Amino acid sequence: MTTLNQFKNFTANLGQTELMPVLFMGHGSPMNGIEINEFSEKWIEIAKNIPIPQAVVVVSAHWFTNGTRITAMDFPPTIHDFGGFPQALFDVQYPAPGNPKLAQETADLVKSTSIILDHDWGLDHGAWTVIKHMYPNANIPVLQLSIDYTKDAKYHYDLAKELSALRKKGVLILGSGNMVHNLRMMSWEMINGGGYDWAIEANEKFKNAILNKNHQPLINYQIMGSEVVLGIPTPEHYLPLMYTLGLQNDNEEAILFNDKAVGGSLTMTSVQIG
């Protein structure tokens, strides 16, 4: 577990100028948090191949709020926001420190809205199931930024741009959700791999637009076609992608990984920029 002195050292080092990558992770089932599989192995690999961050800011599909909030406590609790899974998953604790100073700096960067410093949330499974594989020693500060459910995709895309200075401070910004996510139509027969035709078609549209840096259709995803409407019945798992794309610079290309459909109606497709 990271000590408070170590946490303060991270805060002191937030002055580097190397531009950190940004990520969108398809997090899928909470069980990925304790399983070593093709998805979690890639998360581990990504962490080994990018610079070690001074801190991580996660935009998780599972913190949907009225207004925008950021965790601002010294040590955010591990939240087990799910049900019906083995006890081993509920037993997981990820004791990464927070960073109140960085929370305030992040809030100060954003001029389009007021960011609320939150002391009640923590790290939900959209955050810790991924990050515990990437940084298993829990020695890097982790903050969560909530998603304002009253706003559209364009708002979140633009808000992300206001966070760009964090990349120069060694902060890894990570969106965590799933591009295609319709649990109501999930097929247990395809849980280990496979997607309905409409899910694959929606995902292909997303991938083509991402690789071509054509963000406008992705922002206006509701008019991309009936298959996209099926793929995004509610926006919370899609909107974290807006934060990743909003932080892309003109000279940066996107790389796709974990590009697989599971359960018929969910895609794990993930994006690295930078």
Automatic annotation (TrEMBL):
Enzyme class (EC, first level): oxidoreductase
Pfam families associated with the record: LigB
Keywords, sorted A to Z: Dioxygenase, Metal-binding, Oxidoreductase, Zinc
The enzyme's E.C. designation: 1.13.11.29
Signal sequence range: none
MF-aspect GO terms: stizolobate synthase activity
Extradiol ring-cleavage dioxygenase class III enzyme subunit B domain segment(s): 38-216
Gene3D superfamilies assigned: LigB-like
Highest taxon of the lineage: Bacteria
CDD domains given in the database record: 45_DOPA_Dioxygenase (cd07363)
Metal-binding found in the keyword field: yes
Co-factor requirement: Zn(2+)
NCBIfam families: PRK10628.1 (NF007914)
Record-stated family: Belongs to the DODA-type extradiol aromatic ring-opening dioxygenase family.
Name of this protein: 4,5-DOPA dioxygenase extradiol
Species, as recorded: Pedobacter boryungensis
